[in-house]
Structure of aldehyde dehydrogenase (NAD(+)):
Amino acid sequence: MSLSFPPRQLYYDGQTRPASSGKTFQTINPATATPLADIQIASNSDIDAAIAAGDRAFPSWSQTPAIARARILHKAASLLRERNDEIARVETLDSGKAFTETSTVDVVTGADVLEYYANFIGGGGLNGETTQLREDAWVYTKKAALGVCAGIVPCGNPPPASPQETQWSTNPANSPPLHAQTLAEIYTEAGLPAGVFNVINGAGDVGAYLTSHPSIAKVSFTGQVATGQKVAGSASGNMKYVTMELGGKSPLIVCPDADLENAVDGAMMANFYSTGQVCTNGTRVFVPRSLKSAFEKKLLEKISFVRAGPLFDEQTNFGPLSSSLHQEKVIAYIRHGIENDRATLLAGGLGKPDDVPKDLQAGFWVKPTIFTDCTDDMRIVMEEIFGPVMSILYYDTVEEALQRANATELGLAAGVFTKDLNQAHRLIDQLQAGITWVNTWGESPAEMAVGGWKKSGLGVENGRRGIEAWVQNKSTLVDMSGAVATVFAKL
């Protein structure tokens, strides 16, 4: 079978390079279940070579003036914007996201993040502090580069800080990997020196080798909780820095006074955007019992606005799941919700959306599904599904909703819909989550530091705090008195 794209190799030391393992996997178009390209898998020697390239580049790159690094990031952001639609088309084929999403969000927000950090770093954002201890003594601090860092990411998206001072090797695993090489090529075209940004492909064994490699200073991981715990344990056991963005089962609390239209729109975005494949999804929707009828009626009106179909059709806003394995997992959860949890199926259920055309029937589609009359002990309520499955839970008092919302080991995101901003701030302050919203859901701009609480992660990304995860502090005390205070003096 002729594939849509040429084989994807590895990318390190400034150019594409063939993997020496002789092994490949195929990336699949989720909308049609047809293969797109062969992806070469890195061997341990390939990983060693990529890390060695980073080691060689590190001394020079870490001493490059901040303004020079900023210019490269600005150029990379400009190239991303110029090639927005081209990259978005590939992303749509590779990920199954509708083009209406990839063309307006994915590449655009990536460029936004690069520009934010280019401005932040170029403007002295990583300058240290100076403190006068006494007339003849000063303390100053410096943010020092970590070294070669590894990112284990599900879609090849490196954290925004990666090109600043540290070297970067990324492992896109075996889900949507096509654009990782594109990003590497854009960085090179923008002027990033060879070895600063490298791409290696593979699955768990490649990630494990990266995590345990003695030359890796830090590991950043995005994925499910169980895997993140293993990665964090391995990395921290070797005294490596870690950043973990893990799963969530996030609560969305609709207060009795909420604007119903806005609350329903928020719940829809929190469950069906990106076909529910967003770690911050608000899949536990807490609704006052008094609003049950009105809330469900409005949801049923709006569920028809979720439009599956050809991914490049401007009317399509709902795509397939990312893989056949993930489709099986989500369908199993929906079946469990119907047959075992016995939740009330308000919309969706088993099967494919009715508006999926015949030529896409082989794709990994599921129906946008809403369960109502859910209880806290149901499996569909307790476990992360990572698909378009909403669970509605009814409550009698806001304090009850708050207590139930926090009754989980996860704490990635949470949100509140209310017209009473005093109440909103009070509830947000008590919700045990690292990312929170009031009267909206899902937006996380470059300026906003985001990260999970409890088992949902370690550290933050984006914002001023996010850059701190990629540097280490050095403090220096300078004494200018001309004498050293000592207890070892002649009596």
About this structure: Residues 267 and 282 are 7 Å apart (CA to CA).
